[in-house]
Amino acid sequence: NVPCSIIRSRSSKKKWPTVHPHKKRLQQIKNALDGKDPNVNLGEVLEPTNRQLYIVAIHQAIPFVGFGIMDNAILLLAGEAIDIYLGVALGISTMCAAAIGNIISDLCGVVFGTVIEDALLGWSKKVETMTKGRVRLPPMPKLSYEQRNLRSVRLSGQLGCAAGLTVGCVIGMFPLLFFPNDDRSKEKESNDSASASKKLINDQNEQLKKETIQWKGKHAEVVERLRVLEKEKNGGLWDKGH
Predict the structure, then answer these.
(1) pLDDT score, position 242
(2) What is the rounded distance in angstroms from the CA atom of residue 54 to the CA atom of residue 30?
(3) Using N-to-C axis directions, what is the helix angle for 113-130 and 50-81, rounded to 10°?
């Protein structure tokens, strides 16, 4: 009988393969079954197609459209309200009111971000149902972890976010349609103030004339005496008296 220690020493010296000897062949078969190129190297990451990059950008852009709408709309509404109602009371400028409105809009965007995303995805499904599949959101492509980390995929996602945010912010400017025109209101206020000041000056002149006439009527003797003294002064009687 062979001792157990010898068996253990012999088994410990045997090295088992860490890589399957036919791994390359198995990967080629898997690629062929998945519809990929079977001759791709194992360490090479497949570059996504333009269609896949386009779908990635669309999926990233849709939530940011809603975020941009809410961000810009709340910014305008909150900034205008703060400027009108709290600007004079707190003594803050228009830019400070806009900054506070931006804080409020960003907080609302962070809090309701997932709600907006879910709502937009639900609306896209409703649009797909209404159009009977003619207009639908394509499903997200199945990309591997290595493919998602490619520069092209990340750049597509960033471009989609930027495009969606731009469209959303442009749509979110709709509260400006309901705000009064500042130039026209300022011109109207200046015209009203000018006419009011002119009317006030005319009223004051008229009141001064009336008071002058009334004073002359009450003090006719004093006025006559002043006229005599003025004539005497002009005639040189005062110099002769002195």
Answers:
(1) 46
(2) 26
(3) 120
List, in order, residues 6 or more apart from 60 with CB less than 8 Å away: 156, 157, 158, 160, 161, 164
Instruction: Give the sign of the dihedral formed by CA 84, CA 86, CA 91, CA 94.
Output: negative
Sign of CA dihedral 115, 121, 123, 129: negative
CB 168 within 8 A of CB 113: no
Counted residue by residue, the chain has a size of 242
Q: CA 91 → CA 88, 103, 182, distances in Å?
A: 5, 19, 20
What one-character-per-residue DSSP string does 82-118 give? Answer: IIIIIHHHHT--HHHHHHHHHHHHHHHHHHTHHHHHH
Q: Which of 64, 56, 63, 61 is nearest to 149 (CA)?
A: 56
Q: Using CA atoms, how far apart are residues 173 and 161, in angstroms rounded to an integer? A: 18
The whole-angstrom separation of Cα 104 and Cα 75 is 7
Report d(CA 137, CA 127) in Å as an integer. Answer: 9
Q: What is the dihedral of CA 44, 50, 54, 60, to 10 degrees?
A: 20
DSSP, collapsed to helix, strand or coil, labels residue 153 as helix
pLDDT, one tens digit per residue, over 172-214 is 999 888 887 655 555 666 666 777 778 888 888 888 888 877 7
